[in-house]
Amino acid sequence: VTGVQTCALPISDFNNLKIDSTAIVTVELVPAKVGELVKIIYYDYRESFLTAKAKNELNEIVYFLLDNPKAVVELSSHTDSRGSDLYNMTLSEARAKAAVEYVVSRGVGKDRIQAKGYGRSQLTNDCGEGKECSDAQHGVNRRTEIRVVSIEN
């Protein structure tokens, strides 16, 4: 499933709008092939809250899920290598929970999201414990990867 879709969404800033105003939003749909990585969102150091950029990325997943009512996605959350195993597992689970709560708050059923925290067990680079790495290098490990588990048309 790829392409561009236009849909009408209510606007939350009513101060500048008439009561019946609607925004027309054009969204490029996430290419969705089962098992493939479709999105990655990133987190600040030691944080689980979603940044504005992460929310925008998750909105694309929301649109995809709303457009494909039987699709299921997997959210795999990770941390960098700094801190203990327990700390990082707890943090990655909090990241997964924050992402799930955001998607669910936008109208997607929780049963359509599989989420798991992996702590620091699946680093994307060689910035393991005790290695000298920049914050940017560590930053690529502070992520939630989103994959499509199933799609039924």
Shape: elongated
Overall pLDDT score: 86
Count all strands and give the number: 6
Helix count equals 3
CA(first)-CA(last) distance: 10 Å
Oligomer: single chain
- The portion of residues forming beta strands comes to 15-25%
Which bin fits the share of residues in helices?
25-40%
Structural class: alpha+beta
Radius of gyration, in Å, reads 17 Å
Structural notes for this entry:
With 153 residues, the chain is of the alpha+beta class. 27% of the residues lie in helices and 24% in strands. It contains 3 helices and 6 strands; from the N terminus they run E-E-E-H-E-H-E-H-E. The protein has helices at 52-67, 85-105, 135-139; strands at residues 4-9, 23-28, 37-42, 72-77, 113-117, 143-150. The protein starts with a strand and ends with a strand.
Structural topology:
Blueprint: E1 4-9, E2 23-28, E3 37-42, H1 52-67, E4 72-77, H2 85-105, E5 113-117, H3 135-139, E6 143-150
Parallel strand pairs: 4-5
Antiparallel strand pairs: 1-2, 3-6, 4-6
Features:
alpha+beta, single chain, 153 residues, disordered N terminus, four-stranded mixed sheet, two-stranded antiparallel ribbon
Short précis:
By secondary structure, the chain is α+β, with helices and mostly antiparallel strands. It contains 3 helices and 6 strands, in the order βββαβαβαβ. The strands form 2 sheets. It has a 4-stranded mixed sheet with strand order 3-6-4-5, covered by helices on one side. Strands 1-2 form a two-stranded antiparallel ribbon.
